[in-house]
Amino acid sequence: MMSTENPVHYPLPVLEHALTPNEINDLFSMLQSQPSINSTSSSETNRSLYSLEERKRRRMISNRESARRSRWRKKKHIENLTSEANRLNIENRELKNRLCMMAHDCHLVQRDSNRLLCESIYLQQKLTGLNQILASAMQLPQLS
């Protein structure tokens, strides 16, 4: 009598990236060890063990792929953080340079302001002296 069992199909996991050599070997050994379509019903115990082993193997491959994607995401995240840190360090250095230039300019303006204030005080004193000389000269009797 011919067996009318449907063949057992195992869906393969959808992989976004290439498989490692170990994973490829696992897949080949999995495909080679599949029971034949004409297997006898006396191997039901073997089939349930095979299904359990197959599920474990698929789960292991899926977990490896998931871990690989997770490592890739972590690597990209670290690269992004490193890039952002470098950008912020450059921006910080530029801001420090601008602050230093502004402080220098402020010092120059303050020095000029102090010089002008001293010059203003000197000129006010000189003007006061000239006004006093002029006032005293106007009080002298005029020679005609």
Automatic annotation (TrEMBL):
Keywords on record: DNA-binding, Nucleus, Transcription, Transcription regulation
GO biological process, one term: positive regulation of DNA-templated transcription
Any one cellular-component term (Gene Ontology): nucleus
Descriptive protein name: Basic leucine zipper 4
Annotated GO MF terms: DNA-binding transcription factor activity; protein heterodimerization activity; transcription cis-regulatory region binding
Gene3D superfamilies attached to this UniProt entry: 1.20.5.170
Location(s), subcellular: Nucleus
SMART domains xrefs: BRLZ
Family annotation (InterPro entries): bZIP (IPR004827), bZIP_plant_GBF1 (IPR045314), bZIP_sf (IPR046347)
Cited PROSITE patterns: BZIP, BZIP_BASIC
Transmembrane regions listed in the UniProt entry: none
Residues of the BZIP domain: 53-99
